[in-house]
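Work through this:
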Amino acid sequence: MLNSKIDISVVIPLFNEEESLPELIEWIERVMLEHNYTYEMLFIDDGSTDQSWKLIENHHQRNPCIRGIKFRRNYGKSAALNVGFHETSGNVIITMDADMQDSPDEIPALYKKITEEGFDLVSGWKKKRYDPISKTIPTKFFNAATRFISGIPLHDFNCGLKAYRSEVVKSIEVYNEMHRYIPVIAKWAGFRKIGEHVVQHRARKYGSTKFGGISRFINGFLDLLTIFFVSKFGKKPMHFFGVMGTLMFMIGFSSTLYIVSEKLWLVYTGDNVVRNITDQPLFYISLVAVVIGVQLFLAGFIGEMISRNATERNVYGITQKLGIEG
């Protein structure tokens, strides 16, 4: 059984990366040996259809520190990271991509920023990038938007090369496409010492990118809205829907009361020009506001009931594990 007090766990999600895996594994092993780290490499095969898993099996037989989890199908990077975080046993967790665009030589510096400088999370910052413009433009937009919303002064939230204290990865949940905003999730979980480190971005050596352009832009924007809403109101949806519903209801009710009161006053004073209530557009606007207010309030109530009875969201079809008990 692996030592529960190992120095570093390297979590590597992958999908069809058979060409890069041998070189990546050799490189990581060399770095760990040079710095005398105790370590584990945890590969999460996200439903690869090539020989990636076979390579992981072969390397596990040679080196038990190399472990693996294979998904039945492709669930996405967030699911892979979430499962990997749960299985780690190192004091410091390093995440990196398997496409060789992240350099394992950055591991010692990231490790020291956690262990010696006391950071909870350190995110890589790829100042010089080799990505196509379809990736760099959305990345700049979302980094700016995320900085504004979260207040975290990072330049590259989505960099795959990150370092974490063990307590961080054990305290957060990553799902859907939220891997882009792990620093935000960590901050709202109470881990506020978040820093960054300039890292090398290497040109892709093998294969092609697994991410599209326009879908990345749209999904990233929706995920940003989701993470903001869930972090603020996920546990108490009534705080959002209830307030909005009450406000809409009061506006509609007050407007209706005003219209009725005005009609009664005009009748009482004998005014000959008295319009029917139903002839006034404001009456229908008020009714719509009342209906919307009731619906928002009910949405908050239903959301409260769901949040109190929610089951686990991260349930995956894992077919095999290597070097992992249970």
In short: Residues 119 and 193 are 5 Å apart (CA to CA). The beta strands are 8-14, 39-45, 66-71, 92-95, 121-125, 162-165, 194-198, 318-322. The chain has two domains: 8-232, 238-308. Residues 238-308 form one domain.
